[in-house]
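Recall that a protein's primary structure is simply its ordered list of amino acids. Everything else, from secondary elements to tertiary packing, is in principle encoded there. The following example makes that idea concrete.
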Amino acid sequence: MSKRIIKITESDVKKIVKETVKKVIKETYNLSDSDELMEYMWLKPSVTQLNVDIFVDDGGSYLRNNHQLLLFVRNGYTKDISDFIPFAIANDPIILNDNIEYNISYNDIFAVQDFIKVNVNNLYKLANEKISHQEFLNQI
């Protein structure tokens, strides 16, 4: 097999870089239909020891809605708040919407990230129905 030298223009390089960056940039998610939360288990602060309500996938919603596994956090401290922050379930959880104005403290955001890190395996098991709700609650 012989090697061949090809000539690449600057515009070709820019195009290649732009396409690569699109693939590397994280997925952005915005909860546009609050009905999707019906497919999530609502966990109150009394259960999680967090200061905010969280909503976890408990039956494959992420598969039906064709997005990565998410955890939603109520973007405020009262039940009348209907704005939610989407977190990616991962060993290094991130918020999947850079345009959100946070109405909870950064300490609470960090606490949610820590919760996800500690419980990442159980969150996947719950979403894929490998453990029951009670088993999940017992393990968090």
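Strands lie at 40-43, 54-57, 70-74, 84-88. Residues 34-139 form one domain.
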